[in-house]
């Protein structure tokens, strides 16, 4: 069993590099209007006839499942069944998509205009599209792109329209529906809308899940959703959300469809539209509300160039094949399949595993830009150097080329243009990102944000924040390539901290690091050993270590690689230690999330000023959240369910123990990691 | 003939004269060798048979009328004639002697099976290929003294070493013979069986009861690891109706009688059992009881468990039977249910009292075309909900509809073919049915004329609600006729590299569509996966309706050209299909039984405790495993 899925997860390896085609190329030579009116003739789904929006909604409302839930809710809320039914109808009205080809044409027309202006190229792998084309005829298809930018939304539909593949219906957040006109356009382009905080609203859950399941059962259109749940603010994969994933997979578990095809899609950007917005969000500046006016105001961003976009359609994953031996479908034999039931532990574990596998596939399919490698290197230079004296350009070039080789050795997909001198690639990359770095006199500088002239002198804390925005942008772009290095980096770190060469000890520490950073990097649950072996294999391959059945030791001449990898993880380790320190030293062991965020940011700022801390990543709200999630999972923290303001209770001794293990003071004894059960 | 001497006693019967003439005819036939002694014996011990069995179909030497390596009668088979047209030979069936023009194209289009690619089966059984028998001399000596006929002839033994699973027939065609029984014994009545079982226990001989030989669960296969002498106990000569009780409408029948003889004999007295499994031409009453058989017309008459009033079975511990014929009893778990479905592991069923009914006054076939399978299933479900199912209602999917079409015999008149064309036009063009989606239900109504017509209207009205169009009696009747000839078709397929089989399940209503789709898709998927070069035929039909579910039949066949071990591939696919059935909430078997083919799934089917219960019954009844077929458990 352990090997079977490897075939699926190793999609992104070099030997099967596929050809990408620039789909904007043709668009530049033809009229947008005639493109919008092109004949659209997708191959129909073979298993079932097409299904109209009205029919879909009717089937959902009349479903036995909803009838059960309606009755339950009526009793619980002391309402009549009719009232509850009416509410369900209302929820469905707010939610449901209303896909119309006319609006897809409108969307295609608009996107043509916008894309041609924003991007120099949109690269798509044709083989992936062909596979998708085939898959949509045979089984219900779930399109699962990663989510890095608002652009992700609808770009898939645009490509489907271009290549005669059925237009997907897309799960979207409800704020989008609230946008005047745009909301309706999205709805008619196939978007359906999900509320953000559903909490324990039973009826809402029921309508949503039945709606999703019905779409999958009917199979008339692919279903697109972001398994990461929301846009990654750090350009790093987000731990997958399992609720939607479970809804999607349930029709297979219950035998209502023969198979489901999951299609991981990796969208990679040279430059992300909302880069600075994201950095500020991470620093605690609230995200602007989605509104049509906001969108129009943002049109300023449309005047800039954002380089290339890569859309890599991954290999279709057969849920049936992947679930072989993981799910016993007979478990549904003895109760009506439409009875509302909590998913079994087995089903939950399977859903979680699949969701992680998809995210891993997305990572492996993403294209790494030269800029991402450069950021990785620049972040290993002290920030003061970057802001004040600058880093020598030639040295950066040299290091980047070295790192390019390492990334290729580790199986990363690099988006490094062929047939262009490396120096040109480097300089054009720097030009594209001139908002973050600038080259002056052969040296690279970090661009500090221009703020409006102030009357009072800049306080030191404000200075920190100024640098922080740029630093966090570097961090985000570095994150685009982290997945290639993270496993070897964990091993390098384990070797460094434990100072051991014993394979068992290293594996134990490696697994411990995976537990601590389980929300920071995506690891497939239960595959620690495989990850460890992969790390050994890769480090051995580039000559950094010697490894056999008992021992793993640094090789002569492996120091460059090992120390680069250790440095890569240091910001995380230091930031986590900082949070641990704060939690242990805090006066109370009961904290709200808000207090916690402010306090950690304050402490980090203070330590940055005194040069006790060197990484700006500790300021990131995303990282702070990840620490809390990890601690909760390791049972060093409990959420107090009674409170509204996200209060939690800290087990200081446990946190201390984890901190000590992380610094190597005590060996990592098996931590009690509770299974991931957030549905 | 064995029972001719006790035959003519029932002169009260209307048909007595007629039968006497038949008896006379039969008396002139050459008869078996030592029947005279036996007849005398049995006559002495048994009550006078009420209806004689002089017209029995199955002789002791089955090879006289039946194929040794295929289905059914030697004279009936599909062949391609000189013009390359398919033809059905013989004179036994309605289809016999007819040309079937569409079959060749259907074979080509469905399987890619062409006339150029023909396989040759071993023409005749080579006795030297049969392993020599392991005989238990002491047992044989004592058996001889009882006068019960037996044989260790190679042909007799091979005939009783198999059922009709694909791998069994395929091996015979290749001339491969595995472990076969060492001896065949033909008891003539219950007491003969008692003697045989006593001797078997005394001499530790393994007994495998044999009825009609139509098993499709590997139940008749001799366990290869069995080192004792294996004796096949052939019940075919225990084939008399011992009495008919017209007051209670029951008949007491010896268990070796085969279905068609039972019906024909009862018909002569104006009765029927109404139990018509598709195999009824050859399968036996005892076999039905031992496997929990189901008949096509169970909606009126019930399945075997509903029909049986009393059973007599000979076990190593003695004879088991109930003391009365009360129609229902509350006396602990029904001991009949230890017997029904015991698949020859506990003993030999010798006599059965079963319900009979007057032969129905009127019978009418019918058929309905639906735009798609989903609508068809919805209609059947509604019919079941209203509990108004006709004697039989069966829904074929689109592939089977096409198959049924390909089996239409040559039309004699231009007018009929014109009518056919018109019907097709009406359905596909005027009504807008997609010829690649539509499906057809066949119906059979029975009863008195007025009620049948009323019933018919009710069913057609329901069908209309689901878009069903009445499609005539002919289509219906042909559908049922085909159930009897379809088994012959497999032999034709095997002549041209096509192997296949059917298997069945029962499933709750809400899962019928899902199981049909998933199992068919699984078969296609597995074939591809296992390297089958041609797309397989993967089709199904719903053959029975119940209050809470339905019985579904799957047909699966493929062209095996280019495969090294086609039977192994076939078995892998069938195995996967069964896994799929179970995963979709289907049962391990609706009526074929478990045998050895499906016993790996028994534990998960009935739970460990359930297995323990069955095992403890086996351990008590047959501690020495005399009935050592190793079926079921």
UniProtKB/TrEMBL annotation, chain B:
Catalyzed reactions: 1-hexadecanoylglycerone 3-phosphate + a long-chain fatty acid = a 1-acylglycerone 3-phosphate + hexadecanoate; a long chain fatty alcohol + a 1-acylglycerone 3-phosphate = a 1-O-alkylglycerone 3-phosphate + a long-chain fatty acid + H(+); hexadecan-1-ol + 1-hexadecanoylglycerone 3-phosphate = 1-O-hexadecylglycerone 3-phosphate + hexadecanoate + H(+)
Locations listed in the record: Peroxisome membrane
Database matches in PROSITE patterns: FAD_PCMH
Enzyme class, UniProt record, top EC level: transferase
Keyword set includes Glycoprotein: no
EC code(s) of this entry: 2.5.1.26
Gene3D superfamilies according to UniProt: 3.30.160.650, 3.30.300.330, 3.30.465.10, 3.30.70.3450, Uridine Diphospho-n-acetylenolpyruvylglucosamine Reductase, domain 2, Vanillyl-alcohol Oxidase, Chain A, domain 4
Sites where the protein binds substrate: 490
Family statement drawn from the similarity comment of this UniProt entry: Belongs to the FAD-binding oxidoreductase/transferase type 4 family.
Protein name as it appears in the record: Alkylglycerone-phosphate synthase
